[in-house]
Specification:
Number of helices: 10
Radius of gyration: 23 Å
Order of helices and strands: HHHHHHHHHH
Shape: extended
Distance between the termini: 48 Å
Helix content: 55-70%
Largest sheet: none
Strand content: under 5%
Structural class: mainly alpha
Amino acid sequence: MRPAVTLEQRGPEWVKSASPDQITAALQAGELAHYMGGKTPDELAHDAHVEDSPNRLLSEAYGFASHRQMSAVAGAYGSTLLESRRRDMTAEQLEKLTWLETASPEQAYAAEAAGELNSLLGRDVTNEAERISTVAANVEARIRAALSGDS
């Protein structure tokens, strides 16, 4: 699953007919990434995101902002906090967590994209639009209050 290429990619036919200045400009713009056997910046970022999926999702499942934070806490306090969090999980969440611990980056990314890990991660996507609307309304009310001096 690769992202759509956002940069126009030039091929061999274009390179054959292009001037050296055009080739230089295309190279600097990243338009020859595929021609040269590489990837665009968007593709590299996507690949890094996919590669980090298991660590990122495990950290989120345990309630941490990052894998580094989770590792630091586990290193400082042992696995007590992680075990405590596991005890609070449902059987379904534990099953998903166990699967995630052995999943490949591609499997983890695909499962997240399909919404299969929502219960583990505490994501209630059925109410997400309502939550966003409520947050927006609250922010708007605060702005109006601040502008009117009613804060």
